[in-house]
Amino acid sequence: MRRAYFKNNWIAALVVAPQLLIIFIFFYWPSSQALYWAFTLEQPWGGGNEWVGLENFIFLLSDDRYWHSVRISVIYALATTALAMGMALILALFADRQLRGYKSFRIGLIWPYAVAAPAIGLAFRFIFNPSAGVASYLNYAFPDLWNPVMNGSHAMTMVIIAGAWKQVSYSFIFFLAGLQAIPRSLTEAAAMDGARPLRRMLDVQLPLLTPTFFFLLVINITDSFTDSFGIVDTMTSGGPARATNLMVYKIYEDGFRGLDYSGAAAQSIILMVLVIALTFIQFRYIERRVHYT
Amino acid sequence: MIERTPWLNFATHAILFTGLFILVVPIYLVIVAASQTLPDVMAIPAKLLPGDQLVVNIRAAWEEAEFGTKFTNTLILATGVVVGKIAIAALTAFGIVFFNHRLRMPIFWMVFITLMLPLEVRIVPTYAVAANVLSPFQTILDAAGITWLIDALTGIEVALEWNLLNSYTGLIMPLVATATGTFLYRQFFLTIPDELVEAAKMDGAGPLRFLWDILIPLSRTNMAALATIMFVVGWNQYLWPLLIITDPNYGVAAVELSRLVPNMNTTGGDIPNWHWAMAGTLIVMLPPVAVVIFMQRWFVRGLINTDK
Amino acid sequence: MADISIREVRKSYGNDEVVHGVNLEIESGEFVVILGPSGCGKSTLLRMIAGLEDISSGEIAIADKVVNALEPRERGCAMVFQNYALYPHMSVADNIGYALKVAGMPKAERAEKVRQVASSVGLEEFLDRRPGALSGGQRQRVAMARAIIREPQVFLFDEPLSNLDAKLRVQMRHEIRRIHNRVRATSVFVTHDQHEGMTLADRMVIMNKGTIDQVGTPEQVYNAPATAYVAGFIGSPAMNFLGGQLSARHGAVMLENGAMLPVDARLAQAMDGQLVQIGVRPEALTLCQPGTGSLTATFEFYEELGSEGLHHLKIEDVPFSVLSETKMRLEEGTEIGVIIPQEALHIFGAETGRRIDTAGTARIGVMA
Prior knowledge:
The complex is a heterotrimer.
Chain A: H1 9-38, E1 40-42, E2 49-51, H2 55-61, H3 64-95, H4 102-110, H5 117-127, H6 133-141, H7 152-181, H8 184-192, H9 197-208, H10 210-226, H11 229-235, H12 247-257, H13 261-286
Antiparallel strand pairs in A: 1-2
Chain B: H1 6-34, H2 38-42, H3 54-64, H4 67-97, H5 104-113, H6 123-131, H7 135-144, H8 146-154, H9 168-176, H10 180-190, H11 194-202, H12 207-218, H13 220-235, H14 239-244, H15 253-259, H16 274-294, H17 296-306
Helix pairs in contact in B: 1-16, 3-16, 4-9, 4-10, 4-13, 13-16, 13-17, 15-16
Chain C: E1 4-13, E2 16-26, E3 31-35, H1 42-50, E4 57-62, E5 65-66, E6 77-80, H2 92-102, H3 107-120, H4 136-148, E7 154-158, H5 166-183, E8 186-191, H6 194-200, E9 203-208, E10 211-216, H7 218-223, H8 228-233, E11 240-247, E12 252-255, E13 260-262, H9 265-270, E14 275-280, E15 286-288, E16 295-304, E17 309-315, E18 318-324, E19 335-339, E20 346-349, E21 355-356, E22 362-363
Parallel strand pairs in C: 3-8, 3-9, 6-7, 7-8
Antiparallel strand pairs in C: 1-2, 1-4, 4-5, 9-10, 11-12, 11-14, 12-13, 14-20, 15-19, 16-17, 16-19, 17-18, 21-22
Helix pairs in contact in C: 2-3, 2-4
């Protein structure tokens, strides 16, 4: 607990004012607008709006297309999270042994974090393109084996791989930091107890990594729900036949292409509730992140 | 530790190489395509060795997408996000850590909550705000009856309007409106020992002097960490610029990149210019990747401490 | 130079009062050490003088001016902190000169003063270094220099030596006293280390649980501790305590084990039947054959201190120690006699803990 404070509270008011103003305009106002729109039926900008209660939600929840979008979003979230975290965990456990070349491996595994989603999207779209590049040979040898342009599950697979690729680095960085925060004396004690490296990974490092694991699990799932727009838009535009029309993308489509603001707002609210629920879960684990004493 | 584990060491290297391979191969294929001619790119079986067209393709992509303007805009966007975030985050954290007022915790929570909802989930109403930033105030004035009052008294109709579509301010502001940096700074400020504050007080320094002379120089590492992350975030923005920028003079690189390849479902049979698109992909991803590699230490530290 | 006057000062955090109505006058140029265990309120008192802590009630005046409402910078005090609180990003020179910079002194003049002060504490070679590159003792000197350069009316020290190793601590102790003798600024020094207090102080203030138990010179405090608490706190090895009762008939204190220790007859007369605690310092005692001394104890173990030996004994399960140049290494459980001279007895009321002097009255600490 801090005990040394300054007393000029008007200076405090002055320094926090800019942020409060910005978050009011660009965060709290829009969020409350979304709430308002979700319960009204409104013409875009101008025109009257009419209170409709839960009608927007009822309409949404009885729409098969929305449920389809929810379903594939969950699949996307779980699949990318599992792929990215699994790979990141294995790589971090072995990178943490800090053998020769450790530094090069580390940077080699970190940089993908910096690649923009549309760049990843385009790159993978090219790589998995059925008629160009590497995948084309597959189709040449086995006609119609692979066609994400026409086949929904192929498109979904492609989007998931790109999404997972994008997430690996983030998890890797956190797993590695988590491993390095484990006091060396603990692994040394285990070594004195006769545990070999793999045994130590299982018995000492993995259990102590649980808090990091839960933290990343929630962050990754949240990100998969909210941060998939760039990839979907550049790879498939939600297609073919809505096969990759994830929740975020559908909000964008309904809101800006279909100009259905109330529908988009209701979807936003549902997504917000989902994200808040996930964040709430994360809160319970974030507290437990560093405890080694 | 002295342990001889040759087999495990071999396995470790094998696993790490495989991981590296999986992450690098896609980019390698991008480089290959970016250095070939279109027929080579479309060849079956694929040619897996780089060609000699890299410079030609990059130049073509650069001109095709007008990357000159776009890169400048993206740089402005990223710099704006970096500077705005750092300034606002440092000030707010200063206000809630070093002053003991009743609103400290409420402000803390108000800022904290913004961590929960990324821009993507509140995109539609945020767009409406960008179309007229003053609309919140107009609505409040309307609701409070003040607009009506002024109209009745003076005959002047109050219509506040400030459109941020197609402007740098509009690009930058909503991206600054989250708590990421504030928390990084808050955590750092909380580690400043009380005695340092007291020593400064004894030396006669007031709050602003303390901020300027002591806190800001001490938080350089923090600043570097935050700057690295925010540069990457700013440079890679896609959805927001896609929405609010319709004037090509304000377009950013990531959005322009996606326009190099026609939409998948609406391709009219033309073979996309993959070699240009891949060259474009390469140059668009280069700046943030370079920043992360060169600023690796700050970047990792910042990422871990921001909790997003 | 300025005197400091502390009147009925209290400090509470919420409902928790940690300083209970303290009165203290510190003369101009005096070196006062506030001594007490951690949590006794000594640092809080110091920080109230500095202006780093609000005063809940009462008054503090520096040079006859009430400073309760003044900011720290307006009080003319300089402070040396326990962990030095050096600015890690500034050079030694900038650290020392920061207060002058804030005060707006021109650069050249400042540099000259910094150089002077730095050389007076032996830091001139280190002016360009960062605090991180200095040893503990050097950092301590920077903290001192930073205080000295302001030529303050009052120097405040908040346990400044507790982070140093034993040898350096002694050395810095002497240095601080030397600087004080030269500068003669009013100094208030807070510590929990009695040796520091004894060697540095003109006057000592012993605090216990938020109140002052005694104020006096080191000799007064050692020779005539005002409370059992002070008696036990000051002196090393610590004073021995035994329970007993004053008896007018015997003109003595009757100990719980039946032994008699003669005391002033008037005292015994005046307070007949009073339950007391008697205290005797280990260095005032002599060992003798069992049965020949004031009382008999059993031997527990021996501790070698070099010039002297410390003999740990037990009297009816109460630990008791004797410090003497005659070194006796006996078997555990051996009986041994102890001679307690009458003038070595300190008598305290068993309930009040206050000193009962020969006049038969209990006194609290001497208020200056």
